[in-house]
What does this fold into?
Amino acid sequence: MDSFDPRLIAVRSAHFIAGKYRDAQPGLEVVRPSDGQAYAQLPIADADLVDEAVNDAWQAFNRSDWASRPPRERARVMRRWADLIEADVAVLAPLEAVGSTRPHKDVIAWDIPYVAEGIRFFAELADKHGGHVAATQTDRLGMQIAEPYGVIAAIAPWNFPLSMASWKVAPALAAGNAVVLKPSELTPFSSLRFAELAVQAGIPAGIFNVVQGDGRITGDALCRHPRVGKVTFTGSTATGSSIMSTCALVGPKPVTLELGGKSPQLVFADVPDIAKTARTVALAITGNAGQVCVSGSRLLIERSIMEPFVAHLQAYFEELRPGPTWSSESTLSPIISRLQASRIDGIVQRSRQAGAEVLTGGGLFEGLGGAYYQPTLLAGLDNQNPAICEEIFGPVLTVQAFDDEQQALSLAAHATYGLAAGVHTADINRALRLVRRLEAGTVWVNRYGRSNDYILPTGGYKRSGIGKDLGREAFEANLRFKSVLIDIVQ
Ligand code: NAD
It folds into this structure.
């Protein structure tokens, strides 16, 4: 069940508009990262097709009862959608894994249940945020009522195609909006099935649409469309800035931006089990081959335990077996593209030239078809080193030693990013001091990485983002608030 033959997975080169697949002329070749083979063609929605998709979504928003039906009814349909997604695992999981970096076994065990339960979480919020009564003078009644925006444009990255799309789509739909999703051009196909299941569950045709294409043409046209009331984006900081300036020029219209990171993991000498903590630290940079926004890419370690800790990390890194996402034997994911792999290597080589010492790894695995990068440990770096400054988005961990808490904090502070941080210590007071002082949107203590506690929002400080995904905050971010004042006749 964990392995499959990629040649047997059929994908459809189409958009999904007004509740139907829309086949279209191929535009871009899509390559499987696991073996470097082109396996499909992707159509590119131009400005006219984006216009049609957004107008259809707007019509569906106005003509269907999606926004006006009782919220509990909306929630019931969304729960059915979640059930259909879980029941569809045999189709959806290979579709997600075949062209992405997500191992099939992890998609089954984690991504699909996570997406389904996330939809249920947002469905449960549908009738819990109607607005509130304002403390006006008593001869009048003041209220704020919550309303959907209309059409929300969701733009998603490739690293967890379905999960990242669901973070955008589920709260927007639960709040009564229509959505036009543009998945990444590198991982476009599972979203089509995701949308098809939404219609099967009873979400009215036209309320959830998928347009395919790249950022320059399709993504840009979506952001510019006057009927798009809000843009919610996950991706790199550079693209997020460009989207924000487009939205400022044509709107202004609101944006939620979940962007890049360069997150530190602080490890103190009092951790009770060095081997266990080293494994947590290693997993936080090698999971999905480091292609995770919150990857713990900078290890800051108390000098007295650096040597044994690094030895554990090296042993763990060397255990990992690169291989295709469709094989249950693989324990290290491919890099999404050859281009991205050479970007990773470029930073590692520049880091080396700037004085870094490569303790493990430092190059691509050869002869595997796809691009696989060796889990890499870099030491001897100063804060100006490219591997410290730039988001690498690969399995590359920098190691810097500190002698006390203050030094750990100053190394942890990053000039650009503030997405997440990890603290590993047995001293609860130290942990709580650091939680307050670390400039990051999420801090994990004695763990690293998200759980399925959807109630905790996620989002970045500094240039790691604006606004939140997950939690009540993500639901509210898909609503706008109208003030109402009524005079009471005495
Ligand atoms: P990317 O910025 O290259 O692309 C993301 C999406 O934006 C794609 O769908 C792309 O087609 C689209 N796009 C590109 N240019 C556009 C434009 N001008 N207008 C509109 N849309 C445009 O990012 P990526 O390489 O797909 O993803 C990796 C990045 O995403 C990393 O930086 C990672 O840290 C970040 N990320 C952040 C989070 C988070 O929650 N903070 C989660 C996952 C990934």
